[in-house]
Amino acid sequence: MSVSNSQINISRRQLFTRRKDADKPNLPWVKNQLFTDVCTQCGKCSNACPEKIIKSSDGGFPRVDFHQGECTFCYQCAEVCPEPLFHPKTEPAWQVKADISDACLAKRNVDCRSCGDSCEPQAIRFKLAVGVVAQPQIDIDSCTGCGACVSVCPTNAITIKNL
Ligand code: SF4
Ligand code: SF4
Ligand code: SF4
């Protein structure tokens, strides 16, 4: 059976998307090494999330989308999952952190502190500098990876990922 060019293009695109998303979080507390083998894509986690941030990602697997809101670490996604896919709530939810790209307005010398205002643990501090507006700096140890800073950023400069 011959494979068309469009099929090749689609599979290349899927591969690229998977690589691009490889360092982004799936769900809090999830056992990442089991995820694609054990998750049945039943959608119960997505329905249970009070913040409505769990979306169907590439391949149909659930993934948090911080453009819709933040994770409050309520553990409800883990509680409703019928599969043995989640670590106990007593363990850390995940190791992901916020990362600010060069698209940040402050890096272009435009005053903006929206992300800092939305960060409850105060992990984003603004450092004064000579000749430029205050620059955001993330305290990695304080960042919980909640994603509250993502949707408020006017230039989409923040990504939550494994650093
Ligand atoms: S812990 Fe709660 S807020 Fe976070 S993804 Fe799960 S259900 Fe949604
Ligand atoms: S909200 Fe976005 S543009 Fe504004 S300071 Fe934070 S990262 Fe930069
Ligand atoms: S992910 Fe949450 S804790 Fe981390 S910098 Fe953004 S708002 Fe603050």
UniProtKB/TrEMBL annotation:
Belongs to the NapF family. It comes from Vibrio algivorus. [4Fe-4S] cluster 3 binds at C143, C146, C149, C153. GO terms for cellular component: cytoplasm. SUPFAM superfamilies: 4Fe-4S ferredoxins. PROSITE patterns: 4FE4S_FER_1, 4FE4S_FER_2. It holds the Pfam family Fer4_7. Could be involved in the maturation of NapA, the catalytic subunit of the periplasmic nitrate reductase, before its export into the periplasm. This is Ferredoxin-type protein NapF. Keywords: 4Fe-4S, Cytoplasm, Iron, Iron-sulfur, Metal-binding, Repeat. [4Fe-4S] cluster 2 binds at C71, C74, C77, C81. HAMAP family: NapF.
